[in-house]
Amino acid sequence: MSLSLAVRSLSLTGRDVLRVEWKNTYGQTQETHLSLDQRLGNREGSFLIGGVRFSHSARDISLVGDVLHATLSNSRGAL
């Protein structure tokens, strides 16, 4: 089963926690919470996969469908 078929819903809790509701191979609904601050950073105004604490330099964080949006600052503090 592909991930896109297994995921039933995605939502953002607070500024940095992704809540995923999905069905396992037995058809049972599962729920997982992932801290995006432990997986995403900010490099000069762009998301950095494998970085940390993106939300510390972000504003207007939102999840639209399955896409994370945010306004991220650069090293000069500009948004």
Give the key terms:
elongated; 53% strand; 79 residues; two-stranded antiparallel sheet; 7 strands; mainly beta; 3-stranded antiparallel sheet
Could you walk me through the main structural features you see in this protein, from its secondary elements to its overall organization?
- 5% of the residues lie in helices and 53% in strands.
- The protein has 79 residues and is mainly β.
- The chain contains one helix and seven strands, in the order αβββββββ.
- The chain is elongated, with a radius of gyration of 14 Å.
- Strands 1-2-3 form a three-stranded antiparallel sheet.
Brief sketch in words of this structure:
The chain has 79 residues and is mostly beta strands.
The Cα radius of gyration reads: 14 Å
Major sheet, described briefly? 3 strands, antiparallel
Averaged pLDDT? 91
Distance between the first and last residues' Cα: 40 Å
Strand order of the largest sheet: 1-2-3
The global form is elongated
Given as residue ranges, the uncertain stretches (5+ residues, pLDDT < 50) are none
Number of helix segments? 1
The residue fraction in helices comes out at: under 10%
User: Topology as H/E string?
Assistant: HEEEEEEE
Class by helix and strand content?
mainly beta
Fraction in beta strands: over 45%
Q: Report the oligomer.
A: single chain
Q: How many strand units?
A: 7
Outline the fold blueprint.
Layout: H1 3-6, E1 7-13, E2 17-23, E3 29-35, E4 40-43, E5 46-49, E6 58-64, E7 67-72
Antiparallel strand pairs: 1-2, 2-3, 4-5, 6-7
Organism: Stachybotrys elegans
Protein name: Cyanovirin-N domain-containing protein
Domain Cyanovirin-N: 11-77
